[in-house]
Design brief:
Blueprint: E1 31-34, E2 53-56, E3 90-92, E4 101-106, E5 112-117, E6 125-130, E7 137-138, E8 146-151, E9 157-165, E10 167-174, E11 181-182, E12 190-195, E13 201-207, E14 214-220, E15 228-232, E16 234-238, E17 250-257, E18 265-273, E19 276-277, E20 281-284, E21 290-296, E22 302-308, E23 325-331, E24 337-339, E25 347-352, E26 357-362, E27 369-374, H1 375-381
Length: 396
């Protein structure tokens, strides 16, 4: 929950979950992070890391913005095994025995996925694997933390967040790896990139230096000098289907805190058309439940997200607490909601693959790994038509 610019990244722990998710992490209390001497604009090569501890004030608690009456932290890894991890509907995708695998993203045709992992190093790197294979390709390898990867619609580029320049910024690299291109340059945290349907723009979260709130900005990939502010929120996800909005515009879904009470996160959406932004619409929200990590189906008709019904009951694993979070799916118009997982494990950070499966991070075997579930049966049971794949990735 997948705090300010600081993330809890203890080796072997649930890494980086800004809120419930994006990465793994949203620390609720004061955290520390390692400072890295990063490259300048004219010198793209990374120098050797120079870690120092810099305490940063939190901007988010576990499942909402500041205002929770009780602070909490995500359970550490490993978690105790609760119930059988085996299911005819659920399949394990990654197999980290040390550290954690998190932040999954799947190509539009479902042929490959990328994710962040600490299984080989305390600081996370970006990995790629074919969805039917166990072979991993490490795309980044540096002293910084690289998280929250997103695959471009043509499957040729990967955007991600990294603190290699000291502050969290957005970078883009080829699918095959190689030298990244820096997209954002602000001193505030910029996280969780998501691609527009045509691949020309990126939306991302930014911790506003003036507002003190999480903001959503959009930047041209080829010319990032003049980004556009579109509203307040966290972890935006661009609808992969162009023109899916009620007025023929493009849709962004995101999580946003309530303005009063416990300020739990709910799921919201905005429409973008001709440079104008519609008023935000709340799709689901509840004072006692945090709804987080929204992700679109390939056809833009459904949204999958995580639900934490009793956020205040979540404590650290060492204190005996267990995070019970489940996955839900709803139609984009809010008319239907379907439960996808249940139990005492923590199921978070879902993302919809073009192969008809939903990929997510779960502690069901005691350590964060990526799992998948067939969404078709749940959609049919709810009277919904399964999402059609959008195989627009190259065949090579």
């Amino acid at each position: 929950m997948k705090t300010s610019t600081a993330f809890s990244l203890a080796p072997g722990a649930r890494v980086l979950w800004l809120s419930a998710a994006a990465g793994l992490a949203l620390g609720a209390c004061r955290t520390e992070r390692a400072e890295y001497a990063g490259p300048s604009r004219s010198t793209p090569d990374l120098p050797e890391a120079q870690p120092t501890s810099i305490p940063l004030a939190p901007q988010l608690s576990l499942f909402g913005e500041e205002g929770w009456t009780e602070k909490a932290s995500l359970p550490a890894d490993p978690m105790p095994l609760n119930g059988s991890p085996d299911s005819v509907d659920v399949a394990r995708v990654t197999f980290a025995s040390e550290g954690a695998d998190f932040d999954p993203a799947v190509s539009a045709d479902g042929r490959f996925m990328v994710f962040a992992s600490t299984q080989h190093h305390p600081n996370p790197d970006i990995y790629l694997k074919a969805t039917g294979s166990t072979i991993l390709t490490q795309l980044t390898s540096d002293a910084a933390r690289d998280v929250m990867p997103a695959i471009s619609p043509d499957a040729q580029w990967i955007a991600y967040a990294s603190d290699r320049t000291l502050d969290w910024n957005i970078f883009v690299m080829p699918r095959t790896g190689g030298r990244p291109v820096q997209i954002t340059w602000e001193s505030s945290a910029e996280l969780h990139p998501t691609w527009s349907p045509d691949g020309s723009k990126l939306a991302y979260s930014k911790l506003g230096q003036t507002s003190g709130r999480w903001e959503i900005w959009i930047s041209e990939v080829a010319n990032s000098a003049a980004p556009q502010f579109v509203g307040y929120g966290l972890f935006p996800e661009w609808c992969p289907k162009a023109g899916a909005g009620p007025n023929g515009g493009e849709l962004l879904v995101f999580q946003r805190s309530a303005e009063r009470g416990d300020r739990a996160f709910g799921i919201w959406a905005i429409e973008l058309k001709d440079g104008k932004v519609s008023s935000p619409s709340q799709l689901v929200g509840n004072p006692s439940t945090a709804y987080i990590n929204p992700s679109w189906s390939p056809d833009g008709r459904s949204i999958v997200f995580a639900s934490v019904s009793d956020p205040h009951a979540v404590r650290s694993a060492t204190a005996g607490g267990v995070a019970d979070s489940d996955l839900w799916m709803m139609s984009a118009d809010g008319s239907t909601m379907v439960s996808l997982t249940n139990g005492s494990s923590s199921d978070l950070m879902p993302t919809w693959g073009g192969d008809g499966r939903i990929y997510f991070v779960s502690t069901r075997t005691g350590r964060d790994n990526v799992w998948s579930i067939d969404a078709g049966q749940a959609m049919l049971a709810a009277g919904l038509t399964p999402a059609a794949p959008m195989a627009n990735a190259p065949s090579d």
